[in-house]
Predict the structure.
Amino acid sequence: MKNQTDPTDRKFVICLLLTFTSVFFAPIAPAAQTRWEDVVRAAEKEGEVTVYATNSVGELQVIWDAFKKKFPKIKLNSVGISTTAEIVTKVMAERRASQFLVDVVLGAPGATYNSLHRGKALDPLAPALILPEVTDLSKWWKGKHRYVDPEGQYVFVYQSSLYGPPVYHQTKLVSLDSIRSVWDLLDPKWKGKIIGLWPRANYVSTALLFMYHHPQIGPKFLERFYGGEMDITYFSDFRQGTDWLAAGKYPLCFLCRLRRAQEQGLPVAEISPYHFKEAPGIGSNNGAIGLMNAQPHPSAAKVFINWYLSREGQIAFRQANNTIEDETTTSMREDLPANVVPEAARRRKEVDYIEISRHDWMEWKPVGDLINAARQKSGK
């Protein structure tokens, strides 16, 4: 004969489980929301927040306007600066004068890590993340937050940009069927027919770091490419390289910038990272955020950081990147509306991307030394 449970006992167990659930789980979201509201009130009492940002983050005014609309009681002191290196110079000069003026910085991951983090100028950002939709890892690519620093605390990477070999072609002169691998660029038929920007860390380090560390490309390719084998013609001004390519003087360009030429309808284009058989990369050109230590407005700094990393803030970031060159740039968040993210920027589930923004790939010197040695060998 089977044992039978008294219906009264079953009801008791169900009630006990419901009570346990309500006591131990229900308060989590309200508690986080209450903490967030407390921080916002404290920020409104502080009354202001100061953010330094490189202009390469995007059209900064779009971001600033969105924040001001959301938090009208918090004055935003926004300072747009050309490069992250210049932000570092400004911050360090202020600190030598015992001036601690800035709360948050938006800039390139490499310079933020190498200068501000290593210079002990940042506070841990991870503990400042309060807003539930920011701390919810399911909202982020592959279910995690990304930091450049090995501690996973200081330099938060929010930008997702698609990377491949930085190769551009004159569409009337080059059939892409002949270039399926980056190694095809070493075919003797391209000797003397490639132009390239002479690499400088401030301009092109991310693309070349990607190639240097790429397991399918690596230092050997760069040694051969820059070592005289391809007889590259160098230019120092992006406009010059673009003009040469558009005019058909050369069919291929390495490290060009084509926005102006494409807007004019000239026959130039970047070869899609998906075209090459080598795996594409996901990295961040200028999409890192850091919390300065000794910040003058600690609560307002938290409000800006959490808002900026929220869905609303990252929509504003994406909308601030609205040029042809920005079509492969989006947020590491997974919940931005499809109509905000260009097709070229959408991460493909079937692709095994190489992640670039990591502290052990941030050092430019070995790449620069290799290329300089190769150039000396080539005699150019």
Remarks:
- The mean pLDDT is 90.
- DSSP finds 13 helices and 16 strands in the chain.
- The radius of gyration is 25 Å.
